[in-house]
Amino acid sequence: MRFKYLKYLAFALGGLSTVIAAGALYLHATFDGLRLAAELTHFAKQRHQRTLRIEGPVELSMFPRLRLQLPAGTLSGRNSTSEFIGFEQASVSVRLLPLLTRRVVVERVEIDGLRMALLRDKAGKLNAADLLGTDDNAPPPSGNEPFDLDIRALVIERGAITWTDERAGRQLALSDLSIETGRLGQTADGRVNASARLTRAEPATDMHLELESAYRVGESEGPLRLRQLRVTARGNLAGWQALDAESALSELEWADDGPSIIQGGSLQVRGKSTGGPFELRANAPRLALTPTGPEAESIDASLRLDGKLRGGSVRLRLTDLQPADGGLVGGKLATDLDLRMASGRLAGNLAGPIRWRAASRQLELPSLAGDLNFSPARPGTSLLKFASEADARVDLQRNSAGGHFTLRSEQQQAKGSWTLPRLDAAAIGFEIDVNRLDADALLATQPARGPAADKAENDRFDLSALHGLDLDGTIRFGHLKLAGLKLEQVKLPISLHGGRLVSAGHSLSLYGGSLEGSLNIAADDGRASYRAYLQNADLAPLLVDFGSRQKVAGTANFFVDVSSKAESRSSLLRDMQGLARLRLKGGSVPGIDVGQAIREWRGPLGTRQGARRAHRERESTAVGELTASFRIDGGVARSTDLKADSGMLRISGAGEINLPQRQIDYLTRVTLLVIPLGPDSGPLASLRGVTLPIRIKGPFDGPDWHLEPGANLPSTVLSAGQAAARSLPRVIPRSVTQAVGRVVKKAVPTPEKAAEEAVSE
Length: 761
Description:
Helices cover 15% and strands 55% of the residues. It is an alpha+beta fold. It has a domain of 186 residues. The longest helix has 29 residues. It is elongated and about 135 Å long.
């Protein structure tokens, strides 16, 4: 009996094979590729109002399996002539036997040269909505589909997909797309591998993406389950360079109605920004995505910074995430900062609630509070402590963000606001008000003090930070201490675009006067320009606070229009070019009392000898008004129109000031208008109206004053000098006067000879 059943089974299988073979031969013999292409075209037009074009007949092959080969084709947009999908060629391999049970088992779908243009219009409508079943205007399914579709593998090569979002004003593209999947169907499991190149014009993006994961699709375990998901991304993204990112999930259970669960989620990103190298890590042991919002016990994230910050870290912790009211409430955010910068170290913490509103797609941080401590790098400075308050919001629907902050210390307070008009662009708007700030403590700067200032750090300026960031805003200071100077009512408009920093129309008050100016710095060529006008500033206390030993007094008006290379501190002075004008009223010039100097020089005046007089800090010469203009070239300011008038003296001169070397070389001509009163005023009376050449030469803080040797003076002056020399016995010992007399007898010509020389000259 057993063998009898086997014989029946063999007959049945043989008969079935014969039927299948006959059906296949019949299908091959009766197949009409042109007709099939026409039917597909008709279906696309009637069902989806799209135009399908197939560049030739559909070809059929039978062995080793049933295979449909499609030539190049395109599918238009809905009710449009523009291309939605295109391909260079495609093939579909189908198993024969399941067709008898009205099942289509697709062994393999291959698409080469896929092109797809996805678009979301300004109304938020997707151009593939009818194909996805989300278009209300699309006709419903007929309900009598004849086949149960089962795809065993999908392969896409050389694909390209563009995504355009007209509502958000963004566009990106995927090229070099490659996808290979396992089985696809209502219940299936397999693996997916994909790779592509992601590019975007603004902000500039060029990334290579890879994805691999095991998946399972089945109604008993939810619509979709991913296991060991791994996504890598390498390249440049906006202002971040050389990114190397990797995201991994141990498991993702996706559900349409209930919560979607993420297990063992992690993210690691390394790269470079304008601030230098960085590393970001994040971990979520378990995250539930419910219909009302996310839910998690904790999410940890840390950011490590190097480069310009010279090391540092930022750590974020999200805890107690609970869904409520169509969003997220009850979550807490804690932030720990530890940033090491050239100017010092900033450490502290901020914490507060976090809220997510799903309906409006808004993330809110309504009240962050904490403490920040700043340790200046300069030795001997004290720790600065600030109480901090802040709030922030991110509006994904409007693609924007903004917030406020407050910093308080014992004597200082800063308040401000910031905005990001577009999240996908590095553009920041801000308004900051600071009541009082000691910038010297924060920046570890010291005012220039004497020759030591010439040895200041020659650190190079890194202007690369100006690239990749757009800023528009204003900073205001009620009181600002900078480089020792006390500034008030400071207003600094700041505009940064395309690597160019501009501060046009900044203003401030200082020492009874005011300053208005404009600053321009370009990162590309490293050039900086500055134009400013200082009015009615009290110069004496200004110089004292700046650290200068020169006690020039008076009311100063100063105009400057210069440019230079902003490569380093030294290059700013070394390469400076431009113009400057100075006007000083009701002041005094330190270092010499000209009247007293003339008394001391009465001997040399009569002998044509030069005379040197060192800088004396306690002496000064009063001037009613002093003016000068300068042409600056290579850091050297040259002037030919120095003028000053004190009532007793009239001064003119020409010379140069070497700014990098902090040296002055000026030849002045001093005319004595009034003879100073004293016991020796009689012998000096003949000097009235005579111009004396006096050279000022040496370092800024202590130049020497010289009576030029060999000065060609009128005979009356020489006679006065001789008379002054003869009057010396009244005040000094006889032995000295005898020695002086011998010198005068040899060196001083007769009055007749002196007059002859004066006329010839």
